[in-house]
């Protein structure tokens, strides 16, 4: 699997961590 093309799906990538953090923040705001 080409890590570069799907980096945003890689749990180890910063982009993934940022996306998860943003998602959790939205959940808390709308909870």
TrEMBL record:
Protein name as it appears in the record: Uncharacterized protein
Organism: Microbacterium natoriense
Lineage summary: Bacteria, Bacillati, Actinomycetota, Actinomycetes, Micrococcales
């Amino acid at each position: 699997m080409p890590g570069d093309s799907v980096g945003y799906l890689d749990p180890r990538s910063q982009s993934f961590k940022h996306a998860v953090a943003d998602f959790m923040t939205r959940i808390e705001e709308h909870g």
